[in-house]
Write a structure and sequence with these properties.
Helix content is 35%, strand content 8%. It is mainly α.
């Protein structure tokens, strides 16, 4: 559990809102097709986020490299 503190008078008087979210608060039925279209149009760059690819048999090496800070985003590529 993580506790936070805030000035409730300032919070209420300034018109601020507190909103929790899980997984970015998306609407999968609307957002996933939109994201797929953006990717297909080349407007959403996902491939550039992958810093290493591993075959399934090297999954432990992928986790090791991730925990060591050697990669940012590893991908298990089943075609390798």
């Amino acid at each position: 559990q993580n506790d936070i503190s805030l000035n409730t008078v300032d919070f209420a008087m300034s018109g601020k809102h507190l909103h929790g979210s899980i997984y970015g608060y998306c609407n999968p039925r609307a957002d996933i097709p939109k994201l797929l279209r953006l990717y297909d149009q080349g407007k959403l760059k996902l491939d550039e986020l992958v810093t290493a690819k591993y075959p399934l048999e090297d999954i432990n090496e992928g986790y090791r490299a991730l925990h060591a800070g050697e990669i940012v985003r590893g991908l298990i590529d089943f075609s390798l």
